[in-house]
Amino acid sequence: MATSSHHLSSFDAKQASGQRRSSIVSRSPSAKVDLKSGLEECEVALNLFLSNKFKDALELLQPWAKESMYHALGYSTIVVLQALMTFEQQDIQNGISALRDALHTCQKYRKKCTIVESFSGFLSRGSLELTNEEEMHAEICYAECLLQKAALTFVQDENMINFIKGGLKIRTSYHIYKDCLSILHILQKNKVEQQFFSEFEGGVKLGIGTFNLMLSLLPARIIRLLEFIGFSGNRELGLLQLQEGASGTSMRSSLCCLTILSFHTYISLILGTGEVNLGEAENLLAPFLQQFPNGSLMLFYHARIELLKGNVEKAQEVFQKCISVQEEWKQFHHLCYWELMWINIFQQNWMKAYYYSDLLCKDSKWSKATYVFLKASILSMLPEEEVAATNENVVTLFRQVDGLKQRIAGKSIPTEKFAVRKSRRYSLSTPVKLVLPALEMMYIWNGFPIVSKRRDLSENLLVTVEKAEATLQSQTLSEYLVDDECLVKLLKGCCLKSLERPLQAELCFNYVIQSEKLLKFDHYLVPFTMFELAFLYKSQGEMDKAMKALESARSNYKDYSMESRLHFRIQAALQLWRKTSSD
Asked: Whole-prediction pTM value?
């Protein structure tokens, strides 16, 4: 579902007005910014942002961020986005400061209700005529700011108090959105005409849609807990709300589009099954690519879509273009380095993959432990003479990983915990080499659904895995041997599954499951293998066996590496399969 031509034509007008932004804001410092001006200028700023004019967008919004709710929301959103992309403490502090000011600005415009009545309760008693549009928009803007502040609170510090504070903000934001949805229904039922109704509606659909979509991703046991305290998530409802918002004419139409694109091209792969609605993603992106052919965000999603289609070379080309079109925000470069590293891993271009992993180690602060582990893992795939040419020491790199781990919201990052645990083999006086560590990380990051789109890549990976298998068979018995053999069997089974050789794949998966009691370290292998076996059964039309394998993976194993990620994927698979069977 693409955005309407009406919305895109309005972008043309806003772009023209963006050229005159100095005249737009040439008002007296004491002048009040009305709702109309706030909405118009915020959309101009969004247009500038999507055109890579990040500084111009901030300069347009910042002078009025303490007077206008939409200037405040727009300004804080850009600052927060920068903080979430850099993870630098100063950027996080700047984001929190901007949000504090934004919440204060929005609060000035909110309806003054008593302690015992909610905003929606006030309206539902027939008091719509006593409420103006500014107060309704203030609720939406306040909820958006709260949600952003919760996200930053989670990454600000490692103490549990901040974690609780973040959860409370999310709860408050969620209930405000539910209140606003009730208000929207009242307005529609009573056919109340408002000048900026479409903007309010767009804000409600963005919030309700995003909440439902994100909550629906959570594992079943977490959903049950959240439902007990008043949360609920419905994926179909979430997507429908976002699709309706995307097809509208509000400023938030583009934000609804970008949220759906993020879900289809990224979240569905990392936290889902890898089965992606690329048709909808392409249709959504097309008008934006036409409007912003050099916009970094649009190019990034374009490249992701090409990658998920299996057009690896085209994806490389677009990611490179995404890097070249702007220098202002290096954070976009880091996203592209990450993608280009994986593309070269898929292709087994190890030196190029090393190049991008090294850039991430030097330039990005998201997760140094993960970056260094990946760099060492990639170098492990190269012959020793090629490693020597890089002046890197693989053992030294692996030994650095433990000291680089960080804590967010009082907890370690799961991928870092995984990297630290795997690296311990190199802390021994006589290091024990990891087997195919780069391909193991590719599996953890769900790279096989992408590789499966290309038979040549799957066949090349199978050759590499079988070489490692043959090497293990000639090795003397060690405490790591069974774990290494099971890892190789899992990777081999995934390659065979991609190549549509189900009987051989099933043999590999069953080997891992039958070795469960012999594993000493990599206990995650068994539940993850059962997940793969479930999909193999499904592809053969054996749904009962598939569901049984999924339920076993979910219920019979705990306290293993990357457990949450697997539970996310199991939840996604169960939802998808149940929907398919009901249809």
From this structure: 0.89
